[in-house]
Amino acid sequence: MFACSKEEEGNAVPSGFELEDLTFNGTAASISWSTAKDADEDDIYYNVYLNSELIEGPITKNHMSTTVKYNQDYEGTIIATDKNGGTSELKFDFRSPTSKIALVTDFQSAHVVAIDLHTHQRLWTARTEERVNSIQNGLVFLGFENLIARNIITGEKVWEAQPVVNDYYTGYRDILADDKFLFAKAQEGSLICVDLERQEKQWEVHLSGSISRFSMDKDHLYATQRGTDDLIKISKVSGETAWGFELDRPVGSLAPQIEHAPLIYNGNIFFQDNNGRFYSVNKDTGKKNYSLYNRKNSQTTPVAFNQNIIFTAGDEIISVKADTGEITWKNSVDMYSQSSPFIENGRIYVGAGDKLFCFDAATGLHLWDTSLGGEIWSSPVVYDGKVYISSHTARLHCINAATGEIEWKEGNVEFSVTSPTLVIGETEKIIYSSDHGMHL
């Protein structure tokens, strides 16, 4: 920063003032500066400019507040002027705070709520069928009657498409996107591919009785369904099926099915069925590597850690060797878990009942648990030493990842059982829960 002055003949201009403080609370900026000196003891007033636009002035105080936009560079100028027109300028540069947004689906109102993690307040809301599952190039993709792309920061609609046309209502859910295509389930049971550049349907495949999210890697989708083939591999470009996999038949009468997005790891696919079996399948051939019968079913997606696969089954969390399925450790989570684990810095975070649990990922040692006061159906995400998770208490919780202490529970969410998605900056970093299905 620097100051310059313009002196009128016979007049001592204001001088000797500098920037003292610049602070932010979200997009609210507070600026203060020292009082300019004037040898003639003239009264001094100030005009404050940001990027050449007058923000406030003339004012006699040496502080002000204004609103800025996230993720922006600013050039500030404060001009001190005395009664005779003598001026002195103070220039400074700054960058506004990086936006930090949590996207949470509110089932009570069928809206996605964008929550500012700086202020804990709503930034915007929009209608949607289900949770936010995919963000690309600054856009968040939602499905309500049509497919809609919105600006992640403002929520403004960028484009809208209706790839499935019929005489009744069509909604879209389980949306995933890469840099070329968007994939989603239409309400009547079709899996569709939309070209993002043209915003038109590329192909459509019928899935028989699919109830869970699908997964994708660079070239293929891995979708679950009910029928002869319970898991199928689909080309992202053509929609053609590469192979189908049939689950082991149950010992009882319960029809087997997969109720979560499969995990893709080290060339294999890992998942569980509703009959208490855990599977490893080669993703290239569709052939089973092994299956384990643990008698406890699960609706949650496994996670990988140091050549091990960790998953919840009933009221347990279990770690097995990825290549053999040999159990390396297991521990209790007290109640049936509907929450997919999240791994960060060698720790596992998972919800069960009304508690968020933390375990050591290598040993399974129970480190802490914290009650949220309401049943947890969502999966946690972790960023910058904080765990974010929603529960039936109708609030987004922020929890210290090291200690389990609840730091705040805000967000004006009426009722949410879905996992939050975090967006840092203009999609410089996106943190999904472990069951989101993308493994690019």
Automatic annotation (TrEMBL):
It comes from Salinimicrobium marinum. InterPro entries: PQQ_b-propeller_rpt, PQQ_rpt_dom, Quinoprotein_ADH-like_sf, WD40/YVTN_repeat-like_dom_sf. Residues 73-243, 301-369 form the Pyrrolo-quinoline quinone repeat domain. It comes from the Bacteria. PANTHER family: CELL SURFACE PROTEIN, OUTER MEMBRANE PROTEIN ASSEMBLY FACTOR BAMB. SMART domains: PQQ. SUPFAM superfamilies: Quinoprotein alcohol dehydrogenase-like. This is Pyrrolo-quinoline quinone repeat domain-containing protein.
